[in-house]
């Protein structure tokens, strides 16, 4: 996890504009470099580094002697960089995985390079010989990037939108100028001698319908006829490749299926690889939180060095402003779920030596883990909804997991969004992937049943939203929030919401409060989040909390949608 920032074709004093790069210093506290480009005085590249591999030669903008005309800024991890080195006999000059981007680009261009990368990334590549600029982002948008492009040829990019505010020369009302760069895409620009750019094309190098060049399952994984075994192999391989780091490892552990599964595999594989330090796990919750109790049981089972973080409603509410500023989002469910993750990340930064943190994001979208999937009208609609959620993850859960950890200079890794695993899982019949026997994520649970990796009661623990699981049994986080916002927002303010916030007006006092805070920091940029996250198929509800939904059991499923167990 690092922070990238670049501008091209700046008409104003470049040195003054570069101060905006300091707004993302939290993404890379270990070192900072800002560099002008030879013969392009109105262009500038900046990089905040969090050292994960190659402490000596991994600084950016990256250039190597064999291709001195190529500059690369990137934030990410390329897990197959050794594989492509052997495949093409590349002569690496550093130990940094991102060097592969330069060699692959020189081999076949930017789209080719992006399609060959098995990993997570957001990059800006400048080729001064060809006078080209390229931007690219990984399939699920695990690593963030925002883009500002003006008609006069000015281009700016940054890992977070806050680093681009003010660069539009005071034109605050045109919020369409700053946009999240679309995942799975590469854009190319012609670069003039003045530093101005012209957009040439955008190419989608990976989607659910278009597989990149690395999409075939590696032969070393050796998939067979047993679907359960294949799932175990792919999830295990996804965790194994992400152990790539020179820093110590930790795992977020809520006690739910996803984080517990990942933590158990990290501990197991770390021992097998000979790591000489214990894996730390972290849970957070209010007093009596069901997540904390479940996580404690998992930690004891897997043998991790476990940390429990407790927070009060007052501490959670006090963090809301910081959370919303870090997220750059006004979405209710995103903010509510982010508070616990933000606070536990703050604890990890202050109280431990861990930097690389594993988490279980992506499973609910991929494996139909949300409770509302029990009421999917048909297998086709359930499958379509799962794919839609994966496509938009970068706007919600992936955004949450990146910003809450990056705010405290941590790098998050999400194995359940590994491309080999997700591609295989989505290739299975929709009837296998839907909830079965009244249990969401049934196929994923069944794949690890009987392995002893997790206690049975954890493996089959029902889905609970993160913001609900951290709640106290005495008084929920949801109830505490409602009491607070009812004092901050009155009925007249909410009634006037459509006039004050014409784009997706808030419908509850909680969402109104969040929008107020968002507008304080990011006035006029509400369209960064194009819609409100809400469950489907269960009728209108004002609140996205899982506590507001009925848990549809097998008895509610029509005969024509009967569960099929594999």
How do the helices and strands line up, and which of them pair or pack?
Blueprint: E1 3-8, H1 14-17, E2 31-37, E3 40-49, E4 62-64, E5 67-78, H2 81-88, H3 99-108, H4 110-116, E6 119-127, E7 132-137, E8 146-149, E9 155-158, E10 178-180, E11 185-191, E12 197-204, H5 227-241, E13 249-252, H6 257-273, E14 280-285, H7 290-302, E15 305-310, H8 313-318, H9 320-327, H10 332-351, E16 356-358, H11 363-366, H12 379-391, H13 397-406, E17 411-413, H14 419-427, H15 430-433, H16 442-448, H17 456-459, H18 466-469, H19 477-488, H20 491-495, H21 497-500, H22 509-521
Parallel strand pairs: 13-14, 13-16, 14-15, 16-17
Antiparallel strand pairs: 1-3, 1-9, 2-3, 4-5, 5-6, 6-7, 7-11, 8-9, 8-10, 11-12
Fold and architecture overview:
With 566 residues, this protein is of the alpha+beta class. The protein has helices at residues 14-17, 81-88, 99-108, 110-116, 227-241, 257-273, 290-302, 313-318, 320-327, 332-351, 363-366, 379-391, 397-406, 419-427, 430-433, 442-448, 456-459, 466-469, 477-488, 491-495, 497-500, 509-521; strands at 3-8, 31-37, 40-49, 62-64, 67-78, 119-127, 132-137, 146-149, 155-158, 178-180, 185-191, 197-204, 249-252, 280-285, 305-310, 356-358, 411-413. The strands form 3 sheets. A 6-stranded antiparallel sheet has the order 2-3-1-9-8-10, with no helix packed on it. It has a 6-stranded antiparallel sheet with strand order 4-5-6-7-11-12, covered by helices on one side. A hairpin with a 2-residue loop joins β2 (31-37) and β3 (40-49). α6 (257-273) packs parallel to α7 (290-302) and α10 (332-351) runs parallel beside α13. The model is unreliable at 170-176 and 551-566 (pLDDT under 50).
